[in-house]
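hey so i finally got around to running the thing on that chain from the lab meeting. sorry it took forever, my laptop kept dying and i had to restart like 3 times. anyway pasting the input first so we r on the same page abt which one it is
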Amino acid sequence: MDYVIIGIGLLFIGIGFLITEKNAKYLLSGYNTMSKEQRDKVELKPYLAHFRKFHIFLGLSFMVIALVLNYLSPNIGGIFLVVYPILAYSYFMWTSRGYFKNVKSSRTQLKVGMAILIGTLVFVGAIFYLGYQEDEIIFDKNQITLEGFYGEEIDPSEIQSVKVIEQLPEIKKRTNGFSSGTVHKGYFKLEDGKRVKLILNNEAKPYVMITKNNGEQIYYSSRSKSNQEIYNQLKNLFPDLDYNP
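ok and heres what got predicted. didnt touch it at all, straight out
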């Protein structure tokens, strides 16, 4: 993750040097769709200086804060990686409006851009809020229920085995789900190509692994309960299933 953070930070810095007075009419969003008459009204040189300073600050602050947060709290760090750039670009658009004050169409573009960023922030906030909610495992003598967007109801007859493991298999990538910090929910592909379901509210060990008769594997970890306790409760409630030796 540290390499990803550094790479993104360097990308932000690089963007600051990408746009110049010579290529702005081709690469600068909004400016490249203006007529020559409109472009002449834009204070391009001071805007580009502001553009460069902003992206240098964004890149450096992103790397420093993200690296520290990722070390102290991966969950908060995961939120920061997404939310900080959105807030930063909202600030940048607002502080840049003076350089385009003589172009009437830029006001509309500013409103549209701000609306998109605010909408994106609300959408991302909702995803993180739902993603960080604990998806509990509930069971009675008739079924096992995994809560949440990627949860399901499992009949005990569908289960081949229930085990506790100290180490997750090597995860290659997320194919459909939510992943941030220590929280991973949804479908993931292993290094060997197998597709599994993770409902990890935390990375507390041991993990509970449920293998179904069709070969599907579900890895579960609770945030509020002991995973070992959950395993023991399943073992007492469904004694006929195959458990750890």
